[in-house]
Amino acid sequence: GTFSLFMYISMVLAEGLLARTFGTYLLRPFDMQGSAVWVACLAVAAIAGAAVVNMVGNQLVETSATVTAAVKLVGISALAVAGIA
């Protein structure tokens, strides 16, 4: 009952804070992390993107996880080769 409601509220707040952090970090290389408008827009886009992925289903998530894992593996391998050379 009550604890479930508290957990739901805390999850919503945590997702919002995580989305704002994502927006801030994404704008940092462009020295725009202080822009409240862009941070909010990117936060909304991140939450909307997560919602779309959840609606599409697990197959897309599995495929994207495989692709990102492959990209990470290639990047780490490139760094290892560059470090050895």
Structure report:
This protein has about 80 residues and is mainly alpha-helical. The chain has one domain. The chain is built from three helices and no strands. The longest helix has 27 residues, at about 60-85. It is extended and about 60 Å long.
Number of domains: 1
Helix content: over 70%
Summing up helix and strand content along with how strands pair, one would put the structural category as mainly alpha
**Number of helices, where a helix is a run of at least 4 consecutive DSSP H or I residues:** 3
Instruction: Please give the radius of gyration in angstroms.
Output: 18 Å
Q: Strand-residue fraction?
A: under 5%
Give the N-terminus to C-terminus distance in angstroms.
Answer: 60 Å
Mean pLDDT score: 88
Number of strand elements: 0
Low-confidence stretches at least 5 residues in length (pLDDT < 50)?
A: none
> What does the main sheet amount to?
none
Write down the overall geometry. Answer: extended
- What is the succession of H and E elements? HHH
